[in-house]
Amino acid sequence: MNLKIRLETPEDRYAIEELTRETFWTFWGEDLKICDEHLLVHKLRDVEAFVPELNLVAELDGKLVGHIIYTKSWIESEDGTKHEMLTFGPLSVLPDYQSRGIGRKLMQHSFEKAKEMGFKAVFIYGHPDYYPRVGFKRAAELGLTDYGGNSYDALMVYILHDGALDGITGKCCIDPVYFNLTEEEALEFDKRFPPKKPHVCTPLDVLIKRLEPESPEAAKAISGLDFKNLDVMKSRSQREISSLPGVDAKAIITIHEVMKEHKFPWGEST
User: Fold this and answer.
1) Which candidate, 15, 12, 23, 7, places its Cα nearest to that of 193?
2) What distance, in Å, lies between the first and last C-alpha atoms of the chain?
3) How big, in percent rounded to 5, are the helix, strand and coil portions of the chain?
4) How many whole angstroms separate alpha carbon 230 and alpha carbon 255?
5) Which residues contact residue 95 at a Cβ distance below 8 angstroms, ignoring those fewer than 6 apart?
6) Burial class (CB in 10 A: 0-12, 13-18, 19+), 69
7) What is the C-alpha separation between 256 and 270, in angstroms, rounded?
8) Secondary structure E strands in the chain
9) Of 161, 189, 211, 246, which sits most exposed with the smallest number of CB within 10 A?
10) Could you give the CA distance from residue 259 to residue 234 in angstroms, rounded to a whole number?
11) Is the pLDDT of residue 88 over 70?
């Protein structure tokens, strides 16, 4: 595989935003009616926290197939002390080029550069069963939470230097740009790109109906999560779902089957 990783150039910008759009078109949140990850990339380049040295693209045989973008973030300790960190995302790989290790190579390359730049660690909100396999630790294991004090498996940390976070606990904080995107703005921004058929989220009922005959307690517990669609299940790890009442090994197998049928990566076998 003739993969080249290099810095993004101004000439790459539109192509990278389109690549991001293709990557995340079906990865929407609970309530969004439009993908906004390409808008986020567009805005991240202009915030003070942006790290241009870690704004990297992956080319395969001359074709842009992947991208990773970083911003400075921080851990805020209980006494108000701020410890500088990094956050990456979106990390994008064109759908036809996924499962070839391109995303992992972008991470590894950028981690080495970040290490050379003196950063302590990287925290992300990501796929809770995939990232631990590439060296991330669950934030809760390190005494870290999100800014609201919440702890969940999708919040993870990659330590760049041994002992870099020893004695550091607190809240993980990222630039407000990540939270300030609106659906109206995303819809307007999306007009810059070729028309694309809107993504229709798969209702959670698809899973509930499969679970009810053999695992009614599991079906009830998952209904209690109050997710509107199956897409959002990606944000919960297999460990978290397994801890729900009535979710036994049989129920986990059914969840794996349903998620796979609908092309959603989920669980420890992802």
Assistant:
1) 15
2) 23
3) 40, 20, 40
4) 10
5) 22, 23
6) buried
7) 9
8) 3-7, 56-60, 63-76, 82-93, 121-125, 137-138, 144-146, 155-159, 170-173
9) 161
10) 9
11) yes
